[in-house]
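Propose amino acids for all 367 sites.
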């Protein structure tokens, strides 16, 4: 299978992996031949990447993430809780969160078990979903990334559960932002952005009034937009004044934001998102957290076309756990010629070789 940008799809290609909505319902089945109408529909749905069948790489499979059942349960719980908040006054809102607390805790534990049982790096490109409300999917994705980072940093189970709760509720304050601003299809005005920025403090006050939740969960919502150089909000905290969990969620939040399709910009590939994090490492983001993220998350997902610094081209076929920028590559082209007998090359065993570029559009599929 090959990972392809939706913008570069052409008629006659066959979908390699089904497209689902955030509730797990199949919208477009695996194996269907793409025509002009379907390609247009994929673009309208805001899907940035899809897997396409390719006879030469049919043995290459996307990585595994949490189970479909767990994903549906998580999205449903987040959606029900967050939409209930929009319907209630501030006094009732804390009760809504408290009512969902047990379900969220159970979800976090199940997610932790799924991540632990997975022998591959986490990659959210493995499953292609559309979403009605970005906040619900984003909240789950940030939770997955935060827990993967926390596990890489050897946090205890109790710490991970608190971190997971903080991540899943980090944007809860957005549900009290005026809907016309929250769901605006274009860029926000300066005044609208100032309104959006209030969600960190709003979320803090909502969560801290829930007696059964650790106060640290509220601080995760409060601090996930703080930056170690003081350039963040709402308080402009610096360095160690920001809790370590806030630093973890900040990295997860930014990465998911830049690798998701939005109305005002296209999604970046994971390695491009990692470059954003490294550009801010030690300035905006904690270096130790960014490094843990790099080890825990696949930045070159299976099926991605790559070019090596010696000119060879191929497809990422497998991941090296703990070393996301050194995957195993199936070489398909050498010296500008397509190989009749492709072969695997493990970058971990060839330190002089690096991935020089990525290609999700130009290589030909021989049907």
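Proposal:
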């Amino acid at each position: 299978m090959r990972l392809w940008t939706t913008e570069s799809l052409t008629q006659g290609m066959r979908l390699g992996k089904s497209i689902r909505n955030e509730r797990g319902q199949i919208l477009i089945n695996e194996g269907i031949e793409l025509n002009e109408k379907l390609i247009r529909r994929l673009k309208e749905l805001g899907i940035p990447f899809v897997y396409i069948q390719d006879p030469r790489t049919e043995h290459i499979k996307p990585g595994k993430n949490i189970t479909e059942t767990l994903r549906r349960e998580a999205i449903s719980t987040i959606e029900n809780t967050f939409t209930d908040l929009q319907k209630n006054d501030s006094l009732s809102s804390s009760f809504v969160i408290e009512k969902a607390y047990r379900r969220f805790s159970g979800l976090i534990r199940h997610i932790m078990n799924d991540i632990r049982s997975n022998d591959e790096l986490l990659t959210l490109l493995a499953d292609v979903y559309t979403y009605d409300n970005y906040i619900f999917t984003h909240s789950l994705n940030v939770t997955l990334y935060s827990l993967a980072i926390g596990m890489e940093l050897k946090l205890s189970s109790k710490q991970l559960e608190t971190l997971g709760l903080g991540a899943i509720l980090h944007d809860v304050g957005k549900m009290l932002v005026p809907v016309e601003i929250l769901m605006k299809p274009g860029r926000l005005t300066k005044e609208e952005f100032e309104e959006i920025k209030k969600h960190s403090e709003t979320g803090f006050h909502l969560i801290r009034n829930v007696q059964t939740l650790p106060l640290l969960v509220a601080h995760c919502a409060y601090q996930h937009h703080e930056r170690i150089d003081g350039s963040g909000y709402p308080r402009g905290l610096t360095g160690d004044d920001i809790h370590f969990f806030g630093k973890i969620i900040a990295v997860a939040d930014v990465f998911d934001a830049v690798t998701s399709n939005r109305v005002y910009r296209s999604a970046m590939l994971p390695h491009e998102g990692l470059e954003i994090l490294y550009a801010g490492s030690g300035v905006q983001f904690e270096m130790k957290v960014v490094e843990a993220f790099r080890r825990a998350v696949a930045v070159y997902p299976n099926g991605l076309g790559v070019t090596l610094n010696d000119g060879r081209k191929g497809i990422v076929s497998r991941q090296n756990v703990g070393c996301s920028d050194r995957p195993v590559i199936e070489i398909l082209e050498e010296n500008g010629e397509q190989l009749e007998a492709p072969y695997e090359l493990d970058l971990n065993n060839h330190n002089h070789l690096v991935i020089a570029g990525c290609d999700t559009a130009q290589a030909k599929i021989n049907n």
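The mean pLDDT is 90. The beta strands are 2-5, 19-20, 26-28, 49-52, 128-129, 305-308, 313-318, 328-334, 337-346, 355-359.
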